[in-house]
Protein backbone atom coordinates (compact mmCIF):
# COMPACT_ATOMS: atom_id res chain seq x y z
CA UNK A 1 0.00 0.00 0.00
CA UNK A 2 2.77 2.44 0.91
CA UNK A 3 4.62 1.77 -2.35
CA UNK A 4 1.41 2.34 -4.34
CA UNK A 5 0.78 5.67 -2.58
CA UNK A 6 4.33 6.82 -3.23
CA UNK A 7 4.19 5.72 -6.87
CA UNK A 8 0.88 7.53 -7.44
CA UNK A 9 2.27 10.68 -5.80
CA UNK A 10 5.34 10.55 -8.04
CA UNK A 11 3.23 10.10 -11.19
CA UNK A 12 0.90 12.96 -10.23
CA UNK A 13 3.82 15.27 -9.47
CA UNK A 14 5.58 14.38 -12.72
CA UNK A 15 2.47 15.08 -14.77
CA UNK A 16 2.02 18.48 -13.07
CA UNK A 17 5.63 19.38 -13.83
CA UNK A 18 5.40 18.29 -17.45
CA UNK A 19 2.17 20.14 -18.19
CA UNK A 20 3.42 23.26 -16.41
CA UNK A 21 6.42 23.67 -18.73
CA UNK A 22 4.58 24.03 -22.05
CA UNK A 23 5.37 27.48 -23.43
CA UNK A 24 4.39 29.57 -26.42
CA UNK A 25 7.93 30.61 -27.40
CA UNK A 26 7.64 29.14 -30.88
CA UNK A 27 7.22 31.26 -33.99
CA UNK A 28 4.36 28.90 -34.85
CA UNK A 29 2.35 29.42 -31.63
CA UNK A 30 0.21 32.47 -30.94
CA UNK A 31 -1.31 33.31 -27.58
CA UNK A 32 -5.03 34.07 -27.56
CA UNK A 33 -4.37 37.76 -26.84
CA UNK A 34 -2.27 37.99 -30.03
CA UNK A 35 -5.14 36.95 -32.29
CA UNK A 36 -6.71 39.68 -34.40
CA UNK A 37 -3.92 42.12 -33.45
CA UNK A 38 -2.20 44.24 -36.06
CA UNK A 39 1.50 43.48 -36.47
CA UNK A 40 4.06 44.52 -39.04
CA UNK A 41 6.38 42.28 -41.04
CA UNK A 42 9.83 43.46 -42.15
CA UNK A 43 12.01 41.58 -44.60
CA UNK A 44 15.50 40.56 -43.62
CA UNK A 45 18.32 38.08 -44.18
CA UNK A 46 19.80 35.85 -41.48
CA UNK A 47 23.42 36.82 -40.81
CA UNK A 48 24.14 34.57 -37.85
CA UNK A 49 22.58 31.66 -35.96
CA UNK A 50 23.49 30.58 -32.47
CA UNK A 51 22.19 27.71 -30.33
CA UNK A 52 21.17 28.92 -26.86
CA UNK A 53 19.17 27.54 -23.93
CA UNK A 54 15.82 28.97 -22.85
CA UNK A 55 15.35 28.77 -19.09
CA UNK A 56 11.69 28.81 -18.14
CA UNK A 57 12.34 29.92 -14.54
CA UNK A 58 11.85 27.42 -11.77
CA UNK A 59 8.49 27.50 -10.00
CA UNK A 60 9.60 25.55 -6.93
CA UNK A 61 7.06 22.79 -7.61
CA UNK A 62 9.85 20.28 -8.24
CA UNK A 63 11.54 21.04 -4.93
CA UNK A 64 8.32 20.87 -2.95
CA UNK A 65 7.07 17.69 -4.61
CA UNK A 66 10.47 16.04 -4.28
CA UNK A 67 10.67 16.95 -0.60
CA UNK A 68 7.21 15.56 0.12
CA UNK A 69 7.80 12.33 -1.79
CA UNK A 70 11.30 11.89 -0.35
CA UNK A 71 10.15 12.56 3.20
CA UNK A 72 7.17 10.21 3.03
CA UNK A 73 9.15 7.46 1.31
CA UNK A 74 12.08 7.63 3.72
CA UNK A 75 10.09 7.97 6.96
CA UNK A 76 7.71 5.12 6.15
CA UNK A 77 10.36 2.70 4.92
CA UNK A 78 13.44 3.43 7.04
CA UNK A 79 13.59 3.15 10.81
CA UNK A 80 10.99 3.39 13.55
CA UNK A 81 10.33 6.16 16.07
CA UNK A 82 13.20 8.69 16.10
CA UNK A 83 14.89 6.88 13.20
CA UNK A 84 11.81 7.40 11.03
CA UNK A 85 11.81 11.12 11.84
CA UNK A 86 15.51 11.50 11.01
CA UNK A 87 15.19 9.47 7.81
CA UNK A 88 12.10 11.53 6.87
CA UNK A 89 14.01 14.80 7.27
CA UNK A 90 16.96 13.49 5.26
CA UNK A 91 14.59 12.09 2.64
CA UNK A 92 12.89 15.49 2.37
CA UNK A 93 16.19 17.30 1.87
CA UNK A 94 17.45 14.85 -0.76
CA UNK A 95 14.04 14.66 -2.45
CA UNK A 96 13.83 18.46 -2.63
CA UNK A 97 17.27 18.71 -4.21
CA UNK A 98 16.46 15.97 -6.72
CA UNK A 99 13.05 17.50 -7.50
CA UNK A 100 14.68 20.87 -8.20
CA UNK A 101 17.15 19.24 -10.62
CA UNK A 102 14.33 17.43 -12.42
CA UNK A 103 12.28 20.61 -12.74
CA UNK A 104 15.28 22.57 -14.06
CA UNK A 105 16.00 19.92 -16.70
CA UNK A 106 12.36 19.85 -17.78
CA UNK A 107 11.92 23.63 -18.03
CA UNK A 108 15.17 24.28 -19.93
CA UNK A 109 14.91 23.82 -23.69
CA UNK A 110 16.91 24.60 -26.82
CA UNK A 111 16.39 27.93 -28.55
CA UNK A 112 17.92 29.87 -31.46
CA UNK A 113 19.43 33.34 -31.35
CA UNK A 114 18.94 34.84 -34.82
CA UNK A 115 20.89 37.89 -36.00
CA UNK A 116 19.06 39.44 -38.94
CA UNK A 117 20.07 42.23 -41.33
CA UNK A 118 16.92 44.20 -42.10
CA UNK A 119 16.56 44.97 -45.79
CA UNK A 120 14.62 48.23 -45.42
CA UNK A 121 17.18 50.18 -43.37
CA UNK A 122 20.28 48.01 -42.88
CA UNK A 123 19.62 47.67 -39.13
CA UNK A 124 20.79 44.48 -37.44
CA UNK A 125 18.31 42.94 -35.00
CA UNK A 126 18.51 39.89 -32.74
CA UNK A 127 15.55 37.66 -31.89
CA UNK A 128 15.62 34.61 -29.62
CA UNK A 129 12.89 32.04 -30.12
CA UNK A 130 12.14 28.35 -29.76
CA UNK A 131 14.34 26.13 -31.96
CA UNK A 132 11.43 24.49 -33.77
CA UNK A 133 11.98 26.17 -37.15
CA UNK A 134 15.08 25.36 -39.19
CA UNK A 135 16.99 28.39 -40.50
CA UNK A 136 20.27 28.80 -42.41
CA UNK A 137 22.61 31.76 -42.75
CA UNK A 138 21.62 33.78 -45.82
CA UNK A 139 17.96 32.76 -45.64
CA UNK A 140 15.35 35.42 -46.37
CA UNK A 141 12.95 35.84 -43.44
CA UNK A 142 10.18 38.05 -42.18
CA UNK A 143 10.44 39.58 -38.71
CA UNK A 144 6.90 39.96 -37.41
CA UNK A 145 6.51 42.41 -34.55
CA UNK A 146 3.69 44.09 -32.66
CA UNK A 147 5.99 46.56 -30.93
CA UNK A 148 6.47 44.34 -27.86
CA UNK A 149 7.26 40.87 -29.16
CA UNK A 150 8.87 39.61 -32.34
CA UNK A 151 9.00 36.31 -34.18
CA UNK A 152 11.00 35.21 -37.21
CA UNK A 153 9.45 33.13 -39.98
CA UNK A 154 10.80 32.00 -43.37
CA UNK A 155 9.76 34.22 -46.26
CA UNK A 156 7.39 32.22 -48.43
CA UNK A 157 8.43 33.62 -51.80
CA UNK A 158 12.25 33.54 -51.55
CA UNK A 159 14.31 30.35 -51.28
CA UNK A 160 16.98 29.95 -48.63
CA UNK A 161 20.47 30.70 -49.89
CA UNK A 162 23.86 29.73 -48.61
CA UNK A 163 27.09 31.16 -50.00
CA UNK A 164 25.19 32.78 -52.89
CA UNK A 165 23.45 29.64 -54.17
CA UNK A 166 19.82 28.62 -53.97
CA UNK A 167 18.98 25.56 -51.89
Give the arrangement of secondary structure elements.
Elements: H1 2-20, E1 40-55, H2 61-77, H3 82-107, E2 108-118, E3 124-130, E4 140-145, E5 150-154, E6 161-162, E7 165-166
Antiparallel strand pairs: 1-2, 1-4, 2-3, 4-5, 6-7
Helix pairs in contact: 1-2, 2-3
**What global shape is seen?**
elongated
Helix content: 25-40%
Rg of Cα set: 24 Å
Portion in beta strands: 25-35%
Largest sheet: 5 strands, antiparallel
Low-pLDDT windows of residues: 17-23
User: Helix tally?
Assistant: 3
Mean pLDDT: 74
SS class: alpha+beta
Q: Spatial order of the strands in the main sheet?
A: 3-2-1-4-5
The count of strands amounts to 7
Determine the N-to-C terminus distance.
Answer: 61 Å
Along the chain, the helix and strand elements come as: HEHHEEEEEE
